[in-house]
Amino acid sequence: MSALPRAHELGLIGCHICGLVCRDTQVADAACPRCGSALHRRKPNSCARTWALLIAAFILYLPANLLPIMRTVSLGDVDDNTILSGVIELWVKGSPDLAVIVFTASIVVPMMKFLVLGTLLLSVHRGTNWARAQRARLYRLVEFIGYWSMLDVFVVSLLTALVQFGFFSEVEPLPGVVYFGLTVVLTMLASMSFDPRLIWDCQDEDD
Amino acid sequence: MNSPITDRGQIDPALSSPLLICEHCDTVYRRRPLACGDVARCARCGAVLERHQRISLNMMLALVATVMVVFVQANLWPIITLSLNGEQIHTRLWGIIVMMWNAHSQVVAVLAAGTLFFFPLCKMLALGWLLIYARLGRRAPGFRQTMVVLHYIGPWTMSEVFVLGVLVSIVKAHLYFDVTPDAGVFAYAALAILITVFAGIDVRQLWDKIPDTEGAA
């Protein structure tokens, strides 16, 4: 046994909900004695669920970026903005620093989630030992920053509610923002259903 | 080894804590007392195992009460005011939600209502409920279910993202209009700070800190 024993080596299970350390009774439908949730050694069907949610998120991510998310009407002048054109407008006319924040939240973070979760899933399938500590850190990063992507959805909502002057000026949400909101929710669900324990489940050779 | 684990249904509270399993890689550790400011990290994957909890249950209850007060203000007061030709539009959270619903973006309205209103509200009410009973030295009715619900709604509260959203909206709207941040936005900023304080608190400690008196009887 290594210096850092893992739960299954000691016949233990940690409850995923409340964290209680339980003895692994090998019963199929064991429940946590403290919180009553089902006990699992690993999150059930972690890879399949994560793949499904990630692919669904990616499908919705295309219209989210290609379709406009917001329409600005000003004295009869209609202007449709996509996520990227909104960032560019902010960069050119407003403040470049906020443009960087919006760009990070709306474009970098979702793209990073697809790349990171995709990489994690592929490497788990291959059972590789490659860069495990770094992969674990990437996963924690994705979990931590994931929900900041909702930023643009809130901005569109706020502007819609704010700018309501009929013919003079009006902001309307367009379907892109709905797709984008769903993408964020699906990527959050995907990162929650991925089990980072799988990263460490291949053969322990180096420790 | 001296295992703290008992079979289903019987847990000795004194023994429920000496071991700790890393949530990210399943490594088993023996718990050590942490000094103020200490953070225990997993030696294998680097994830945080446990933080020293300097906030007592009473302080937590006070914090929850504060958040509730600020939350009410953040919802009642207008967040941003926009003026054009003497006409003024005040925006409140629920105004935004209703507006999005009517603008054929019901999905967004539901998301905003959930992540900015219902989930934060449920979280605070649930914590308040558990902590009020904790002051009386016992577990609240429905303790177990409430703790499980708290675990699930945890990641779905997004008030701090909204604060940043308000900032971006003000800058964007400022290109064309006369916008002024209203009292509500300061309430939201306070809320964001309080949420950050909350982020360091591990709600799971309530399992250990509020003993199960009925279960032992």
Automatic annotation (TrEMBL), chain A:
<keyword id="KW-0997">Cell inner membrane</keyword>
<keyword id="KW-0812">Transmembrane</keyword>
<dbReference type="InterPro" id="IPR051800">
    <property type="entry name" value="PqiA-PqiB_transport"/>
</dbReference>
<feature type="transmembrane region" description="Helical">
    <location>
        <begin position="145"/>
        <end position="168"/>
    </location>
</feature>
<dbReference type="Pfam" id="PF04403">
    <property type="entry name" value="PqiA"/>
</dbReference>
<feature type="transmembrane region" description="Helical">
    <location>
        <begin position="174"/>
        <end position="194"/>
    </location>
</feature>
<keyword id="KW-1133">Transmembrane helix</keyword>
<feature type="transmembrane region" description="Helical">
    <location>
        <begin position="98"/>
        <end position="124"/>
    </location>
</feature>
<keyword id="KW-0472">Membrane</keyword>
<feature type="transmembrane region" description="Helical">
    <location>
        <begin position="51"/>
        <end position="70"/>
    </location>
</feature>
<keyword id="KW-1003">Cell membrane</keyword>
<protein>
    <submittedName>
        <fullName>Paraquat-inducible protein A</fullName>
    </submittedName>
</protein>
<dbReference type="InterPro" id="IPR007498">
    <property type="entry name" value="PqiA-like"/>
</dbReference>
From TrEMBL, chain B:
<protein>
    <submittedName>
        <fullName>Paraquat-inducible protein A</fullName>
    </submittedName>
</protein>
<keyword id="KW-0812">Transmembrane</keyword>
<feature type="transmembrane region" description="Helical">
    <location>
        <begin position="183"/>
        <end position="201"/>
    </location>
</feature>
<keyword id="KW-1133">Transmembrane helix</keyword>
<dbReference type="InterPro" id="IPR007498">
    <property type="entry name" value="PqiA-like"/>
</dbReference>
<feature type="transmembrane region" description="Helical">
    <location>
        <begin position="153"/>
        <end position="177"/>
    </location>
</feature>
<dbReference type="Pfam" id="PF04403">
    <property type="entry name" value="PqiA"/>
</dbReference>
<keyword id="KW-0472">Membrane</keyword>
<feature type="transmembrane region" description="Helical">
    <location>
        <begin position="60"/>
        <end position="80"/>
    </location>
</feature>
<feature type="transmembrane region" description="Helical">
    <location>
        <begin position="107"/>
        <end position="132"/>
    </location>
</feature>
